[in-house]
Amino acid sequence: QEATEGHDEL
Amino acid sequence: MNIFRLTGDLSHLAAIIILLLKIWKTRSCAGISGKSQLLFALVFTTRYLDLFTSFISLYNTSMKLIYVACSYATVYLIYMKFKATYDGNHDTFRVEFLVVPVGGLSFLVNHDFSPLEILWTFSIYLESVAILPQLFMISKTGEAETITTHYLFFLGLYRALYLINWIWRYYFEGFFDLIAVVAGVVQTILYCDFFYLYVTKVLKGKKLSLPA
């Protein structure tokens, strides 16, 4: 998982 | 999005709404740790800064905005509107013992050494322990109102459901986020003692009170 792509979970 | 993730989010939302309604309806925040609520406001603020940088979905954006707004509303009710009912004498947990180590750890152990990512990591670590002032307060007073225990139950259930969501995502999507998982496990473990009391006492119609 690329950290720079952002996080899709809350 | 799987069912565990969705019910986890809804459980989290339920917890936040229950707390807001409890304070609003009773016009009192007695028994609620303002410090925990301040920490949660800090958690949401530092985690959702990506609202400004990336768009994931309408669901994602609206939930983030709702969580942030509700957490600030809760802090406002406790420290401003119903300040007179705030039980500060029992809310004596030293939050610097949480914020400082968590801040240090987020600099040392993160996915990427960038400001936004460090703040996200900080929020994940901080969330895992943010409930401690509230649990400390309950252990100090030896009791909690039933509605407060419902709040804590849904708040604990949310992260437990996320754990199942992460197992699901690992198997079906190959997704694995070690930081979130470890912090999520710690967070859920902190609620275990409370879950036991909730099931054995509150669900049987008794008030949650601890032996002196």
TrEMBL record, chain B:
<protein>
    <recommendedName>
        <fullName>ER lumen protein-retaining receptor</fullName>
    </recommendedName>
</protein>
<feature type="transmembrane region" description="Helical">
    <location>
        <begin position="151"/>
        <end position="172"/>
    </location>
</feature>
<dbReference type="GO" id="GO:0015031">
    <property type="term" value="P:protein transport"/>
</dbReference>
<keyword id="KW-0812">Transmembrane</keyword>
<keyword id="KW-0931">ER-Golgi transport</keyword>
<keyword id="KW-0813">Transport</keyword>
<comment type="similarity">
    <text>Belongs to the ERD2 family.</text>
</comment>
<dbReference type="Pfam" id="PF00810">
    <property type="entry name" value="ER_lumen_recept"/>
</dbReference>
<dbReference type="GO" id="GO:0046923">
    <property type="term" value="F:ER retention sequence binding"/>
</dbReference>
<dbReference type="GO" id="GO:0016192">
    <property type="term" value="P:vesicle-mediated transport"/>
</dbReference>
<dbReference type="GO" id="GO:0006621">
    <property type="term" value="P:protein retention in ER lumen"/>
</dbReference>
<dbReference type="GO" id="GO:0030663">
    <property type="term" value="C:COPI-coated vesicle membrane"/>
</dbReference>
<keyword id="KW-1133">Transmembrane helix</keyword>
<dbReference type="GO" id="GO:0005789">
    <property type="term" value="C:endoplasmic reticulum membrane"/>
</dbReference>
<feature type="transmembrane region" description="Helical">
    <location>
        <begin position="178"/>
        <end position="199"/>
    </location>
</feature>
<keyword id="KW-0653">Protein transport</keyword>
<keyword id="KW-0472">Membrane</keyword>
<keyword id="KW-0675">Receptor</keyword>
<dbReference type="InterPro" id="IPR000133">
    <property type="entry name" value="ER_ret_rcpt"/>
</dbReference>
<feature type="transmembrane region" description="Helical">
    <location>
        <begin position="119"/>
        <end position="139"/>
    </location>
</feature>
<feature type="transmembrane region" description="Helical">
    <location>
        <begin position="65"/>
        <end position="82"/>
    </location>
</feature>
<dbReference type="GO" id="GO:0000139">
    <property type="term" value="C:Golgi membrane"/>
</dbReference>
<keyword id="KW-0968">Cytoplasmic vesicle</keyword>
<keyword id="KW-0256">Endoplasmic reticulum</keyword>
